Amino acid sequence: xxxxxxxxxxxxxxxxGELVHETLQLVAEQLEPGxxxxxxxxxxxxxxxxxxxxxTSKGYKGFPAALCISPNSMVVHGIPNEYRAQEGDLIxxxxxxxxxxxVADSAVTLPVGEISAVAQRLLAVCQDALAAxxxxxxxxxxxxxxxxxxxxxxxxxxFSVVRSxxxxxxxxxxxxxxxxxxxxxxxxxxxxxxxxTLAIEPMITAGRPEVYVHDxxxxxxxxxxxxxxxxxxxxxxxxxxxxxxxxxxxxLLR
Length: 254
Ligand code: MG
Prior knowledge:
It is a single chain. With about 250 residues, the protein is of the alpha+beta class. It has one domain: Creatinase/methionine aminopeptidase superfamily (Creatine Amidinohydrolase). Helix content is about 30%, strand content about 25%. The longest helix has 24 residues. The site of magnesium ion has 6 residues, from strand 4 and strand 5.
């Protein structure tokens, strides 16, 4: 069942989203060669708690940290560790924050120093795909219009959509209905209605789409070790069109 939110709940989610955005900005500022993933997680965790929020992923199904941090060929769900960022890395950072009982969820892939031309294009395409998906989050559209729009942008660029991972409803809890694949034909699935709040999140690779789960049962990486990118926003379907709840006016990369 897709839970539609009231205007008040959407405003509450936007406040959680502001804290998500602010925290991701803080992480982006601290990300430089030599910093460990654990340090980034601590900075994020402390900031969220200082603002009265709760890092939603911490303790979620046993996940140990505030941030999911996934370097290079890791697509999602990386557990922050002693790995030190290196020049040329792509670091995907995914963050959910609960504030006053409402959740917002967002992810960015951040470059460390100079990155390759392919990596630059991968980041640009993933952001374009997210924007195309968000554009379809309109009352009266079908859910899979989002999926299809994302897929078109990614595959026209010659990259791959990870098919086994999906976006999701979000708000009263971290993961709600519906699941939102990043591929498939348009015009399928539920009709979108005002008050639906969706975490739209293309997860893409520069190579093949197959992924595997590491021995920690969390981290997911591309099988061919090609670099991955992940951008995510929490979006509300409103009478005025899609409203991004995790952006607060400023993009992190451009
Ligand atoms: Mg997320």
